[in-house]
């Protein structure tokens, strides 16, 4: 920036060539006091720009003193011998139109040529063309050389900035590239840490260089005005190969740098993946596995198993976050494997295998634990259902049986059998669930991480076996109670059957009594028929006797069953008196029927005997008494037909209807008439015999 200020202040330039191809140095001086030190510094910088080859051809110096004082011009001319690092063939001092005072210019430069080492001439601006070609002079000296000091200065600043930045960047890139090529891992790490990023953007520097080179080449071929042919400044011609060389070096180092960055990026990505893989592995094998180690119980009820399931879901939720990281890492590793170098394949595959092994093992353990808890929940669910069934069955067995009839007992017994069958099926299901759960528990040791799970497993196994044994004992007790209840209910069925049959026997006996009174009316037309009726009646009485005996046996059986059941019969106390009452009525009625039939047999037999005898028989007179007896029997029979059967309770019953009794009595009366007629016939001979 200091040089820039000086160049803008003094505006010296090196441009154009003299007739010996030496460079032309133009030093414009101004009215203001000029600092020789600053001018010396400015000239030193400016003269450092040309190449040694160009400087070896010497210089022609134009000191423009038209706007300065003589003493300043003289001081500058004298200073040139110390400033210009090469031979100065000629110094042209451009004098103003109004020449300096002769006293001032009394100092003769030509006399000092030997001491100075160069020739100094005073010349007007329009006379410079005598010494220098017009095409090598700018317009202010009457020449045609095109020159824009600010444009040159800006280009120079761009060139120097590019040179400085590119040189610094080349050093940085070389340090980075060489550091990455070293075999020592420690140096590589240190180099990466210290010089990972260059101080300037290589792309920007390259773009600046290309633009500068393009500008220099354009000025060379086209000129600054786009149409006027001109010879460029020597420094511009010199800058082009320098820029091209720097650009080539930059491109080479930048290409290497990009490869280094790619390798570093890949290594960094690989290290990040490795770090994340180890984070996943360390958590799964550390806290994740520890969570599973502490979860061994299966619970002793549905609620306890559900609580353990909820806890397991929380553990699974935490694992899911790490499994999501595993999926992402697996995708990244797969992408690197597809695009990776041979040297990274082994490491990547090892990482992928390690990650997959740990994740799949942990996932398998989580699934195993989940299945175990589900099996435990199903076991406890079946056990609870079975327990409720046993409670229901036990409650049913503990309630005393008070059925209304045998049908309800049969229904209750059927319900008991169904419940017992359901309990048996439930117990079988519990055994199956329990055995399946025991099999799963026995496999827990396969992923116990060296932990002794004998105690935990023994507690779980003891609990499962204890539940199954308890259910078996409860079921056995219920079966025993069902057997007792079944026997009792069968006895009650038998009791109801006996009571029902006994009541039926009473009904049958009542029907026999009713039939005896209503249909057993006829007394027979003769002795033979009456005997047949009497025989039929005896058989009828035998049937009634069997019915009565059957009823008595049934009632005796009910007494025994009631004693066995320790209950009082609800119907036998009523049935027995009914049975005895009906039987008593039947026997009274039967006895009356027998008496009437027997009387009728005696009546018919005696009547038929008399009616069949001949009157000539000598013993006829002796039968008079028999006639009286027959009449007495007949009258007695007729009297009995009009008398009802009187029972012990005072009630009365008649045989048949009054018309039936009248018909039977009429038949007896007719027969009595025949006997009476026979008696009269027998008496007539007795009356005629005394008269004779």
Tell me about this structure.
The protein has 692 residues and is mostly helical. Among the domains are: 1-146, 3-Layer(aba) Sandwich (Phosphatidylinositol Transfer Protein Sec14p), CATH 3.40.525; 520-683, Methane Monooxygenase Hydroxylase, Chain G, domain 1. It is built from 17 helices and seven strands. It has helices spanning 2-10, 36-47, 52-56, 70-83, 113-116, 149-181, 185-195, 202-222, 234-293, 302-339, 342-398, 406-442, 454-518, 527-565, 572-612, 624-641, 658-691; strands at residues 13-17, 23-28, 59-64, 88-94, 119-123, 645-646, 652-653. The chain has a five-stranded mixed sheet with strand order 1-2-3-4-5, covered by helices on one side. A two-stranded antiparallel ribbon has the order 6-7. α4 links the parallel β3 and β4. α1 (2-10) crosses α2 (36-47), α12 (406-442) packs antiparallel against α13 (454-518) and α16 (624-641) runs antiparallel to α17. 27% of the residues are buried. The model is unreliable at 222-232 (pLDDT under 50). Belongs to the SOLO family. It holds the Pfam family Spectrin_SESTD1.
């Amino acid at each position: 920036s200091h040089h820039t200020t000086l160049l803008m202040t003094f505006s010296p330039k090196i441009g154009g060539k003299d007739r010996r191809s030496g460079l032309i140095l133009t030093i414009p001086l101004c009215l203001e006091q000029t600092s020789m030190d600053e001018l010396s510094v400015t000239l030193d910088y400016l003269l450092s720009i040309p190449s040694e080859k160009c400087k070896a051809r010497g210089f022609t110096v134009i000191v423009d003193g038209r706007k300065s004082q003589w003493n300043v011009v003289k001081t500058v001319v004298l200073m040139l011998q110390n400033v210009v690092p090469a031979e100065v063939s000629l110094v042209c001092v451009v004098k103003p139109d109004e020449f300096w005072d002769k006293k001032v210019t009394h100092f003769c430069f030509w006399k000092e040529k030997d001491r100075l080492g160069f020739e100094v001439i005073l010349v007007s601006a329009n006379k410079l063309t005598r010494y220098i070609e017009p095409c090598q002079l700018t317009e202010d000296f009457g020449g045609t050389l095109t020159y824009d000091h600010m444009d040159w200065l800006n280009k120079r600043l761009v060139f120097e900035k590019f040179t400085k930045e590119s040189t610094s960047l080349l050093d940085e890139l070389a340090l980075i590239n060489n550091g990455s090529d070293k075999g020592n891992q420690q140096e590589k790490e240190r180099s990466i840490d210290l010089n990972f990023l260059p101080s300037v953007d290589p792309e920007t520097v390259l773009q600046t260089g290309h633009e500068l080179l393009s500008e220099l080449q354009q000025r060379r071929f086209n000129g600054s005005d786009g149409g006027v042919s001109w010879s460029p400044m020597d420094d511009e011609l010199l800058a082009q190969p320098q820029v091209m060389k720097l650009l080539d070096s930059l491109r080479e180092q930048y290409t290497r740098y990009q490869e280094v960055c790619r390798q570093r990026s890949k290594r960094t990505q690989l290290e990040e993946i490795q770090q994340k893989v180890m984070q996943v592995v360390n958590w799964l094998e550390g806290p994740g596995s520890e969570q599973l180690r502490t979860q061994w119980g299966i619970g002793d009820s549905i609620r306890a198993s559900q609580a353990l399931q909820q806890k397991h879901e929380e553990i699974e939720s935490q694992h899911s976050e790490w499994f999501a990281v595993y999926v992402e890492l697996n995708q990244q590793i797969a992408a690197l494997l597809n695009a990776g170098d041979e040297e990274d394949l082994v490491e990547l595959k090892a990482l992928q295998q390690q990650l997959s092994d740990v994740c799949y093992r942990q996932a398998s353990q989580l699934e195993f634990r989940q299945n175990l808890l589900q099996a435990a929940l199903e076991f406890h669910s079946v056990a609870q259902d079975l327990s409720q069934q046993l409670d229901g069955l036990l409650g049913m067995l503990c309630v005393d049986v008070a059925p209304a009839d045998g049908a309800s007992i049969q229904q209750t017994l059927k319900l008991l059998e169904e419940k017992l069958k359901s309990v048996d099926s439930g117990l079988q299901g519990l055994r199956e669930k329990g055995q399946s759960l025991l099999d799963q528990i026995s496999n827990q040791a396969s992923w116990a991480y060296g932990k002794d799970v004998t105690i935990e497993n023994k507690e779980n196994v003891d609990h499962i076996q204890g539940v199954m044994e308890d259910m078996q004992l409860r079921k056995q007790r219920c079966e025993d109670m069902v057997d007792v209840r079944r026997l009792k209910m069968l006895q009650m069925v038998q009791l109801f059957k006996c009571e029902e049959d006994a009541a039926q026997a009473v009904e049958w006996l009542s029907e026999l009594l009713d039939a005896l009174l209503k249909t057993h009316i006829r007394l027979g037309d003769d002795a033979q028929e009456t005997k047949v009726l009497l025989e039929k009646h005896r058989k009828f009485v035998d049937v009634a006797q069997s019915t009565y005996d059957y009823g008595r046996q049934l009632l005796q059986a009910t007494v025994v069953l009631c004693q066995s059941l320790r209950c009082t019969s609800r119907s036998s106390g009523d049935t027995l008196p009914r049975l005895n009452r009906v039987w008593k009525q039947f026997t009274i009625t039967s006895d009356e029927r027998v008496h009437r039939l027997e009387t009728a047999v005696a009546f018919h037999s005696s009547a038929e005997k008399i009616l069949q005898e001949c009157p000539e028989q000598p013993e006829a007179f002796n039968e008079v008494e028999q006639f009286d007896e027959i009449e007495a029997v007949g009258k007695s029979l007729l009297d009995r037909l009009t008398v009802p059967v009187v029972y012990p309770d005072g009630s009365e019953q008649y045989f048949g209807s009054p018309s039936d009794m009248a018909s039977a009595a009429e038949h007896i009366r007719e027969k009595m008439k025949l006997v009476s007629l026979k008696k009269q016939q027998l008496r007539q001979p007795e009356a005629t015999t005394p008269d004779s």
